[in-house]
Design a protein that fits this description.
By secondary structure, this protein is mostly helical. It contains 3 helices and no strands. The chain starts with a helix and ends with a helix.
């Protein structure tokens, strides 16, 4: 009888449930999309300045998506399954 109780007590439970991992994956997608939007915009010639680095996509949209992604990651860590 003691062996059975010991095995039940030794059973490990995962810290995160499926819902947590789903939200973590969504957050990672937001972060990845943000970094992809931020990439590029350079000039082929280092002596020529390119105004493309100041586009609204790189200055506003990409960092906003990255911050939203980090917020989703924090939410995914903090939520508890019922």
């Amino acid at each position: 009888m003691g062996e059975k109780k010991r095995k039940e007590a030794a059973k490990t439970d995962f810290v995160f449930e499926k819902r947590n991992f789903t939200w973590m994956f969504i957050g990672l997608l937001f972060i990845a999309i943000g970094f992809l939007l931020m990439a590029g915009g350079g000039s082929k010639d280092p002596l020529v300045f390119s105004e493309a680095i100041f586009s609204i996509r790189r200055i506003r949209i990409a960092p906003t998506l990255i911050l939203i992604g980090f917020g989703i990651e924090i939410y995914a860590i903090l939520i508890k399954d019922n």
